[in-house]
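Technical annex, item 7. During the second reporting period the consortium partners agreed on a shared format for inverse folding records so that results from different sites could be compared directly. Each record opens with the tokenized structure and is followed by the designed sequence. A conforming record, contributed by the partner at site C, is shown below for reference.
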């Protein structure tokens, strides 16, 4: 039995692989991460669908996004002390990779994938709902706001303006610490707005938020 999963693995190699970061070689957790990501999304979507019977599709989508984002996964990974179990290469160990949100989140997804392959969807669902328990109890659909990109698009559509145009200006940094620079142009502003983020998605959200502030302050 693994202390942090409370699951007795029939195939211990699955757990070993789930905990192995790609910095240790080709036999790593990336494929399990892919599987776990899909299973996590399904289980959380299923839970929200059954609990919030009056919520519309858009509201359910925002709730799910808030629960499966990397920051939330990393938070839960720390709660179950997953950082103590991750197997990293020398470089990642020296740079403190076990503290990085992306590595913690990806490893937790890989563990979910491993539990599913070692058991079935019911046991995997129970594991996910157990580690998410107080996070699921704490959510309030009314508190989940639309992300800046969605808000900006709706703002422009309500004024019969074209949707924003996002472009990647540059992508720098290492594979574990990338930096994306994104530009965005909207009809209501003369200048192009630029922002940086650790992923393309984050940079787009940041630049959309900057534009929203400029538009609202220019009234």
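Designed sequence (site C submission):
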């Amino acid at each position: 039995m693994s202390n942090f999963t409370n699951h007795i693995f029939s195939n211990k190699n699955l757990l070993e692989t789930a905990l192995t970061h790609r910095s240790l070689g080709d036999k790593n957790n990336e494929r399990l991460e892919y599987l776990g990501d899909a299973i996590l999304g399904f289980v959380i979507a299923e839970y929200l669908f059954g609990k919030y019977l009056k919520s519309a599709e858009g509201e359910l989508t925002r709730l799910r996004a808030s629960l499966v984002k990397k920051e939330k996964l990393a938070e839960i990974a720390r709660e179950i002390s997953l950082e103590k179990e991750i197997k990293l290469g020398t470089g990642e160990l020296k740079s403190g990779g076990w503290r990085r949100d992306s590595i913690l989140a990806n490893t937790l997804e890989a563990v979910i994938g491993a539990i599913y392959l070692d058991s079935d969807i019911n046991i995997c669902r129970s594991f996910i709902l157990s580690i998410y328990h107080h996070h699921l109890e704490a959510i309030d659909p009314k508190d989940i706001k639309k992300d800046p990109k969605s808000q900006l698009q709706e703002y422009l559509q309500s004024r019969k303006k074209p949707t924003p145009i996002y472009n990647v200006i540059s992508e720098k940094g290492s594979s574990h610490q990338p930096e994306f620079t994104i530009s965005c142009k909207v009809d209501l502003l003369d200048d192009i707005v630029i922002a940086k983020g650790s992923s393309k998605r984050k940079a787009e959200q940041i630049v959309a938020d900057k534009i929203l502030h400029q538009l609202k302050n220019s009234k």
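Residues 12-143 form a domain with the Ribonuclease iii, N-terminal Endonuclease Domain; Chain A fold (CATH 1.10.1520.10). The two ends are 60 Å apart (CA to CA). All partners now use this format for quarterly exchanges.
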